[in-house]
Target: Probable replication restart protein PriA
Amino acid sequence: MLIARVVVDVPLAHLDRPFDYAVPPELVDGVRAGCRVRVRFAGQLVDGFVVELAAHTDHQGRLAPLAKLVSSEPVLTPQVAALARAVADRWGGTLSDVLRLAIPPRRASAEKRPPAEPPPPPEPPDPAGFARYPAGAALLGALAEGRPARAVWTALPGEDWPARLVELCRATLSGGRGALVVVPDGRDLDRLEAAADALLPKGSAVVLRADAAPDARYRRFLDVARGSAKVVLGTRAAVYAPVADLGLVAIWDDGDDLHAEPRGPYAHARDVLVHRAHLTGCAAVVAATARTAEAALLLESGWAQELAGDRAALRAASPRVHALGADSELARDPAARTARLPSLGHRVAREALAAGAPVLVQVPRSGYTPGLSCDRCRAPARCSACAGPLGIAATPGPGGSRVPACRWCARPAATFDCPHCSGTKLRASVVGASRTAEELGRAFPGAAVRVSGRSSGVLATVPAGPALVVATPGAEPVAEGGYGAALLLDSWALLGRADLRAGEETLRRWMNAASLVRPASAGGQVVVAADAAHPVVQALVRWDPGWLAERELADRRELGFPPATRMASLSGSPEALADFLAALRLPDGADVLGPVPEQPRPGQDGVRERYLVRTARTEGAALAHALAAVQGVRSARKVAEHVRVQLDPTELV
Model:
């Protein structure tokens, strides 16, 4: 009798294991490892994947038969099944949760298409693109030879990073192996796809994006699973793509929060790819303009080697960076420290516009006035109905009026009464991109002003020529020929955040914007409205993200924060958390921090709290196992109140 071991699509922690089913004689020829089936489970028909076929079972008693063969297509490859199991174990989740992220829903029409023949391997790429990096040629050679090279690549300012990443893929393809590249969002993916069309053989690469039509996404997924395409370019969910004979995994801008999966088990794309490289023995590249503390740890541990340009190449490529605090500048403009746009910024912008170049203005927030506070006591203004934050939208209301409204429930706040001091007037605590564009339009009459952001629409590119481009972080368009200058405003809104990663994230946003500016030799200048003595500003002025990442890692190690430790966040009602902690058996040396009140999310009711559980990195697997065990016990008991468990959260405060 043929036995099928099936992972059923039931997201209950105590059922997180394969179940044995008998394969009926009429299905023997069609059932194979990795295919989709339907089985009867707990009295219901549920979906599942066959992870293994066997001749014997340890089950005592009669096995239930498979109810239906949904498709013979082996969409769950052994490599992806092993990765999904490892991810579930490392982050305290369930295998079915990971597989739901890894495998797109089936579309029968796509499976009827015959598999295409993969194109022949191309010639290795021209190494000239990596000539400015001392170890660049060695990395390309290792990929072509199939060696598991690991690198943390810090891209030079103005680098054509999509072309460089595709050259890494081409080198891997030339050795007959596959490659996987993950980027934060669709704009980055569009640039990567354009570079792949120019540098890779036709049909060798597919793009997996979250916003693709279901038919197109599944069709491309099948091209990868069948081995027709050996290069995958995608966003977060593509980390599980079933690339055949995987030789390279790479991620761009690993500090971007879009790489953090918001669904269980909440694994970060960078960590999944690093784990996948470890499991498969393939090469890995963690690439960005800046550098995270996690990337610094990979270098410190020796798991990866640094790929960066030398100082001569850096000086030739980087713009000139000005920061507030220089004695000469303070003598010229005593209010430079407090002005939102000091005279230095005005002067640099005027020079760039006069030279016929666009000017990039980065502001931390979109909208018009996204943050309001009481004019008397400066307390944040909140909605009287749901306690959400009040703000003013980017687009005026009827009659051109701008009425404050709740950013959660959209209820207008025609009147305001501060619960702390009874004040009735509001002031702007945060100025958004739209209002900044209005102010700059008045300050630079005659200059065209464009806005790029979530509320007004994200621009991909802007033409050459004098213009002011106001953008929020991550929405900066690429300028033809580069920007003549960049103004980085409202630094306090980034550096002053109550966030463990505030400094690291601020430098990442600044460097991503500044890297779009022309080199200093071509007149490129950057003005950052922040104190020159701040370590983050110093890292930007010297263009030395590695120094700040090492400093961040050292500080977090001293304080016992990730990535020097493993940490779990437990969120829920006080009663549910108390029950959870009473059943939790922590590894030796683990700390429990809290509880602290948790800000309710829209749609949540009742009091919520959060605990943090911290342990040494060497005990991370034990912590994940202990958390999963408690989740299993609670699901078996059918406990109604859910506790949200998240390992290695990106936000700790």
Q: What stands out?
A: The chain has four domains: 1-74, 127-313, 319-367+432-542, 565-647.
